[in-house]
């Protein structure tokens, strides 16, 4: 069965930051520090999904999706990131899973979508090897409660982005700016994935995935310098997180001056390369790379022109999804498991009209073109088995606060009123024609 779904993340929609026994996460700390997020926005309330989840499940049922990718809040299940479980937190997800199944919607939980418990960050966060072991314990707790009904699990969401934005550049929580010294974060997340995969399977999981954010990398020119820079960026963004999982080894990191990976212990790569039942790929746009114009990183983002852009300023390149999926097939061959597009979507400046309608025809065109690009990849041999729209709801968009709207459903944040957009109606009709 092909999975057609929508996707969300716990910190971006749940709210109820201080309710139900939930402990603080790095995003609670980060977003409450002045200057960290646009307009000082926090996810304290977000979409209030913690209280309004029945309405949101009804919206999914009305849309006609057969799968829902959401994330579990580690802080809600295990407030300090280790030790005792919080029964109220597991009860919340228990009710959500039951409600989804009652509507014929396959629950696809992600264990980690960037909201590390603050207590673990205080102990070093993902720079500390111990966090990988705590992650496996948390995975066992979640699967021990939900695994009798949840068959498909995703361990991590976009470990590249969490390393780069959270630990290297300080744009996201936890706000560290370590640049290349953040590399252990990559390894410890991947080690956590491998350990958690074992814990999930021990609890009866039938399918275990990881979700990586991937981008087709375009050299700015055919010059030797630009080609080398593009290769270096491809290694950092794509291969650093795909190669260990699929090939059991790290790519050549010499372009970054990294030859001594002393944080990699014997046996780690065997754990990381535990066979997967699928891989999640999040796609938003390609990246055009040039040789650096100054000292620092061995590449420079040259930008992409000649395409329409989203409200985020990201270029809309539907064929990039086809290119990416085919490249993955060609690069990894039979090591590549079935692929699920676990996020694809766009932000727009969505404003209800006088009649209350949100006419987001740009998003309709985006989805239509990207679904067709995915299907072209399938005709070229890519084994794609699912497509999840980001996102079900307008939500807290990390450092951008509530200024970027990705949802199929408009959320008026002061009132929490949900209004399905024109794209919701388009996708509903599309899915109806698919069944």
UniProtKB/TrEMBL annotation:
The keyword Hydrolase applies. It catalyses: Hydrolysis of terminal, non-reducing beta-D-glucosyl residues with release of beta-D-glucose. One of its GO terms (molecular function) is beta-glucosidase activity. Its EC number is 3.2.1.21. Keywords: Carbohydrate metabolism, Cellulose degradation, Glycosidase, Hydrolase, Polysaccharide degradation. The keyword Hydrolase applies. This is Beta-glucosidase. Belongs to the glycosyl hydrolase 1 family.
């Amino acid at each position: 069965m092909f999975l057609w779904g929508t996707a969300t993340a716990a910190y971006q929609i749940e709210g109820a930051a201080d309710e139900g026994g939930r402990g603080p996460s790095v995003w609670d700390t980060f977003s409450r520090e002045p200057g960290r997020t646009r307009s000082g926005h926090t996810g304290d309330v977000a979409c209030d999904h913690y209280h309004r989840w029945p309405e949101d499940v009804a919206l999914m049922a009305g849309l006609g999706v057969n799968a829902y990718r959401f994330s579990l809040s580690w802080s809600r299940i295990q407030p300090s990131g280790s030790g005792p479980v919080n029964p109220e937190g597991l009860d919340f997800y228990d009710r959500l899973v039951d409600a989804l199944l009652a509507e014929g919607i396959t629950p696809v939980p992600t264990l980690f979508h960037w909201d590390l418990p603050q207590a673990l960050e205080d102990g070093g966060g993902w720079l500390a090897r111990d966090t990988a072991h705590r992650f496996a314990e948390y995975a066992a707790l979640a699967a021990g409660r939900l695994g009798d009904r949840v068959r498909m699990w995703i361990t991590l969401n976009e470990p590249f982005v969490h390393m780069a934005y959270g630990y290297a550049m300080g744009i996201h929580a936890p706000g560290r700016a370590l640049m290349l010294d953040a590399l252990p974060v990559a390894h410890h997340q991947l080690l956590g994935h491998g350990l958690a995969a074992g814990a999930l399977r021990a609890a009866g999981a039938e399918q275990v995935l990881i979700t990586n954010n991937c981008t087709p990398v375009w050299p700015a020119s055919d010059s030797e310098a630009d080609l080398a820079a593009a290769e270096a960026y491809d290694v950092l963004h794509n291969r650093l997180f795909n190669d260990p999982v699929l090939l059991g080894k790290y790519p050549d990191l010499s372009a970054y001056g990294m030859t001594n990976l002393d944080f990699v212990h014997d046996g780690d790569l065997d754990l990381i390369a535990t066979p997967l039942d699928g891989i999640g790929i999040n796609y938003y746009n390609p990246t055009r790379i040039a040789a650096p114009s100054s000292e620092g990183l061995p590449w420079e983002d040259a930008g992409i022109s000649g395409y329409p852009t989203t409200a985020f300023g990201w270029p809309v390149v539907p064929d990039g999804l086809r290119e990416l999926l085919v490249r993955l097939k060609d690069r990894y061959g039979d090591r590549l498991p079935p692929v699920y597009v676990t996020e694809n979507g766009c932000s727009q400046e969505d404003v209800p009209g006088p009649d209350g309608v949100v006419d987001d025809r740009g998003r309709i065109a985006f989805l239509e073109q990207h679904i067709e690009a995915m299907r072209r990849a399938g005709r070229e041999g890519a084994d794609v088995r699912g497509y999840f729209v980001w996102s079900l709801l307008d939500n807290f968009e990390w450092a951008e606060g509530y200024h970027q709207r990705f949802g199929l459903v408009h959320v008026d944040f002061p009132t929490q009123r949900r209004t399905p957009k024109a794209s919701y109606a388009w996708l509903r009709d599309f899915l109806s024609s698919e069944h």
